[in-house]
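Collaboration report, partner site 2.

Our partner group contributed sequences for two proteins of shared interest, and the home lab folded both. The records are reproduced in the order in which they were received, starting with the first partner submission.
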Amino acid sequence: MQYLVLLTDYGFNWTATQQIAKYKNDKNEITQIFWSVIFSKLMLAVAAFVVLAIVCLFVSQYKNVWYILLAFSPLIIGNIIYPVWFFQGMEKMKWITLCTISARCLIIPLTFLFVNSSEDVWLAALIQGSVNLLAGIIGLFLIMQRGWIFGICFNFPKIKQSLKDGWHVFLSTSAISLYTTSTTVILGFIAGPVAVGYFNAANTIRNAAQGLLNPIMQAIYPRINSLFDSEYKKALSLIKKSIRIVGGLAFIGSMMLFILAPYIISIGVGKGYEESVTVLRWMAFLPFVIILSNIFGVQTMLTHDYKKQFSRILILSGVFNLLIIFPLIIHYSETGAAISLLITESLVTLLMYLFLRSKRIYLIK
């Protein structure tokens, strides 16, 4: 289902954010951008549901759990209408927080209320998927209620252009999935569900720690795009400042994850997950590495319109990960998966840094 969400995302969270940031004072233009993205996502969703039907019918591992996959469908629908990219581009970040928190606050009480046995797993999937849908409905209501855009408009050339603009970023996000989402899938096929459990316990904690800095990065991106054309030096200064401040915070957080890994695993997931401590230590410096790659790639390469080069680096790194992940998982199971993730993310960051230097964009003295 994460692959299908990736398909409907299509990189709009970066390309559409960039467009909205540039034209945020032109209501007519942002209306055109908004509806072209929504209709593009609807077309991609049709393709996503066709893929889902094929998977449920012909892939034996998923044939027996088709109803669980179907219960996750609101995840895709919510992804179509949840306009994170719009709020980012308009620099109205507080509304993202409002939509997300309002929806997610319902997950735990609804899960406790309705999920009582293993037979209710489809309900757990439905609740989790519906959160995205609810957040999307709240987001659309806010946009309409505040009059940020005009009514519905269908402009096929604009839809075609939005898909064209997002193509290289879509390739990039697809390549990223080769060493993120695919890691769990490959680990499950080779090492089994227990290894996936150990890996996911550590990875969930790592993602939670990393997520603390995501709102800062989401706020910086539209600001850089807004400054880029008119005040380039200020945009570059903001990028450099984010390396020092956000990068510094990420490094401190990564150090804490590495040192406190046994206590975090013990408190976070309890007994029986001792194997996850080693996994978490291998992942501990991922928040720092990924923040740097985000600054070098998203904040700098994309704003400088190096989309093709950005996607090539990620595709190359994704293929590299596929070459190393199988032997690492075969020999080291869930720890091997964590090692492959760290090596690949480090390669991404290094290649982006070297590319920027080759273009005489010096972010680090």
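Second partner submission, folded after the first:
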Amino acid sequence: MAQTVIPIHQAKTTLSQLVKRAAGGETILIGSYGRAEAVLLAANALPQKRLGLLEGKLTIPDDFDAPLPSEMLTTFGYET
């Protein structure tokens, strides 16, 4: 089913109505000259980010924040 693109000017003047439609589950396309440039959809339709996805899968060495060896500093142009 082809979806109608709402012109930007019309979207500005009817924004509150479009937001209500999007909150009801409708995907609203907004653009110019019949070409979609933005999508308005319900906030709960966005994928939720999961924190701690890699918890327990990575290890950080004890010397992670230790100073770099002088040879490596020289390679990067730092004088030791």
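Feedback sent to the partner group on the second submission included the following. Residues 1-42 form a domain with the YefM-like fold fold (CATH 3.40.1620.10). Strands lie at 5-7, 28-32, 35-40.
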